[in-house]
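sry for the spam today, last one i promise. struct tokens for design, 374 residues
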């Protein structure tokens, strides 16, 4: 089974984050041979430092990573072709797909959404100009969707680290993190956010200590404005009950493990959002902002699913905090209410991950889709 995955890095790390994860998993668990075509290898080096941004072809974790250069060199298409997030395939490649003797399965891997229409569109074909069919493959949270990326040993590895205090301390120390024993450990990965200052003030005035970990990224400007000073990776800052530590951007697997160690994770986009769910810990999602606030509907659609089974107080607290965070509003009242419900939200997060893990993961679902199509 040969696969070609095409990734065009639009901005940020979600496009490469998802496709790199998928490519590795198809190789490791499904016995697939995968070429991952990436137009911007610099983005890959951020989440996978052993990658070479200048290499036209390299092998990483048994994935053949190819630079998708502006000038396309003809290659034999694979059995399954994934264009991630509707990136346009090279015209020559599409021509070679239709010329291939054995038909090629052409898939567009869509963005993740919890909206109900996704179930109706998942797996649908669309006829292309050249007479080929392209299928739309939607990740998702419900049975009628393509599921979520989840490696086979993921939850066992998570449980291993979460259940082993010494290993956790060692892992955190390897990143230069040494939280006080009584501190709540929180990670923060977000876009620019006007709500940050209010939340940090609330944490500084909290009666419980917080150790806040901030990997370098787009939120750093707001953090620095609040702190009134510049902050670089490795630096720490203390205000009242709040310790802030800026971290270098880390490799993807390390970031996963960091999420497992935290009591609360603030995440964004698509991939970190899913990984925070697998961490089985409470999360706050900063959704990728879209024009005309289209993202707010997506945010609500997810909360509608996620909140099922919560008490009305815990649900209200979660919704208020997520709304305040995504709308740049005052965080202090929402944070105070959320804190009251923290225990229930923690057990709910674990249960949510358990329930999601019952379903086939996205890589397995893709392989099944291919088998059904054959
Ligand atoms: O970077 P993002 O904002 O990506 C977004 C989303 O995918 C969004 O849907 C899309 O429309 C937009 O890009 C163009 O957030 P996301 O999806 O969480 O991706 C971040 C990746 O970076 C994820 O794979 C985790 C990884 N990461 C690390 O490897 N190390 C780190 O230190 C951190 C903080 C993240």
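last one done:
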């Amino acid at each position: 089974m040969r696969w070609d995955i095409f990734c065009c890095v639009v901005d940020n790390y979600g496009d490469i984050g998802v496709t790199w994860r998928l490519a590795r998993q198809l190789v490791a668990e499904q016995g697939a041979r995968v070429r991952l075509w990436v137009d911007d290898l610099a983005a890959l080096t951020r989440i996978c430092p052993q990658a070479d941004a200048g290499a036209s072809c390299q092998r990483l974790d048994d994935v053949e990573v190819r630079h998708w250069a502006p000038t396309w060199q003809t290659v034999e298409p694979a059995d399954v072709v994934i264009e991630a997030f509707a990136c346009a395939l090279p015209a020559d490649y599409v021509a070679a797909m239709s010329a291939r003797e054995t038909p090629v399965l052409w898939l567009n891997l869509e963005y993740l959404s919890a909206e109900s229409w996704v179930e109706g569109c998942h797996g649908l074909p669309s006829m292309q100009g050249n007479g080929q069919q392209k299928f739309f493959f939607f990740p998702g949270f419900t049975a009628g969707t393509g599921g979520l990326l989840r490696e086979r040993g993921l939850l066992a590895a998570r449980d291993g680290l979460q259940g082993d205090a010494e290993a956790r301390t060692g892992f955190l120390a390897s990143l230069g993190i040494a939280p006080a024993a009584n501190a709540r450990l929180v990670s923060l990965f977000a876009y620019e956010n006007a709500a940050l200052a209010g939340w940090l003030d609330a944490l500084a005035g909290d009666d419980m200590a917080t150790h806040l970990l901030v990997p370098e990224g787009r939120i750093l400007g707001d953090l620095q404005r609040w702190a009134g000073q510049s902050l670089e990776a490795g630096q720490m800052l203390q205000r009242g009950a709040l310790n802030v530590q800026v971290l270098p951007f880390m490799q993807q697997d390390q970031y996963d493990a960091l999420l497992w160690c935290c009591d609360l994770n603030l995440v964004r986009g698509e991939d970190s959002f899913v990984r925070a769910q697998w961490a089985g810990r409470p999360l706050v999602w900063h959704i990728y902002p879209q024009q005309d606030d289209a993202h707010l509907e997506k945010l609500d659609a997810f909360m509608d699913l996620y909140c099922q089974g919560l008490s009305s107080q815990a649900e209200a607290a979660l919704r208020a905090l997520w709304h305040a965070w995504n709308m740049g509003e005052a965080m202090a009242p929402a944070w105070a209410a959320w804190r009251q419900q923290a225990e229930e939200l923690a057990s709910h997060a674990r249960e949510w991950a358990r329930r999601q893990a019952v379903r086939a993961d996205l890589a397995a679902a893709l392989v099944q889709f291919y088998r059904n199509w054959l």
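The chain has a mean pLDDT of 97. ok im logging off now
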